[in-house]
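Example (one chain per record):
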Amino acid sequence: MHACICINHILDISPSSVRTLVDNNGIKILCLMMNDFDFIDVAENCIKTLEKASLEYPDYILETGCLPQMMNMIDFFVSSV
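Predicted structure:
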């Protein structure tokens, strides 16, 4: 969970670091982390991080299949997420 929060903060500080996340299969890893329902906080932070990544790479988010996973989990979160 702390790693996902750190990635989220890094993207806040340096939005250009999204490219590094995409190049190193970070999007796919975040999608896999969302499937772990043991910690809902991890899924929430993954969604927030993917939202920031989608501003520059929306097509990559769609290609990896993260959007359907995010939409399946949307009922568990408040509307701001």
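Caption: The chain has one domain: 2-76.
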